[in-house]
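I am still getting used to backbone structure tokens and would like to learn alongside you. To get us started, please write out a protein record for me. Once you have written the record down, we can walk along the chain together.
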Amino acid sequence: MEELELQKQENITTALTKFDNFKNLDEMKSFAAELIKSKLIPFRTPEEAVTVALMGRDLGIGFSTAMNNIYNIAGKPALSVHLAAGLAKSRGIEWQIEKDAESIKGPDGKVVNIVTQIRFFRFNKEMNRVFENVMTYSWKDAVAAGYTTKDNWKTKTRNMLRSRCLTEGIRFVCPEALMGLFYEASELLDSTTDYQYSTDDEGNVITIKDKDGKIIK
């Protein structure tokens, strides 16, 4: 099993090298088709794989990282929350979670909302000062957007609120880190009934299924 995993990593490294040296799009698509056939990358068409590989190159990330952290959802590219966070960190953005799915109660003691709040920090060299921005995202925000019908919002409320708050904060504080890829995967998945998805304990999308239950990522 270990030998197979090592071989897989060697093949991915070879793929990265080749993608950097192909002469034209047809050569890239042909090689991408080979990788898909061998199940080394989680995409259905060569066009998807090539697009993601090129996006990854623009973002300055490796082939393997791009293949596992950039998604094609209904024809739109989206990042994993892990990748968005990593890109922001590389630009010097720091943050502190001040409210982590904190319950807000009304006068009668009943919970009326659930709020996550994150404070972002960014140092500006020219001005020699740190700028702070506070971003909040709540259960009411998710309800208004129509997201809470998804299973993940019901079973992993804390993680989903944190993920959405973090992504919106990064998009506001450091848009250049995302290089135009403004969507995090669960944002697009929440906005359509065509897909169901599962996340890890940090709200990062790990599996996407279509209407028929077929795994597409």
Notes: The longest strand covers residues 111-124. The chain has two domains: 2-73, 83-209.
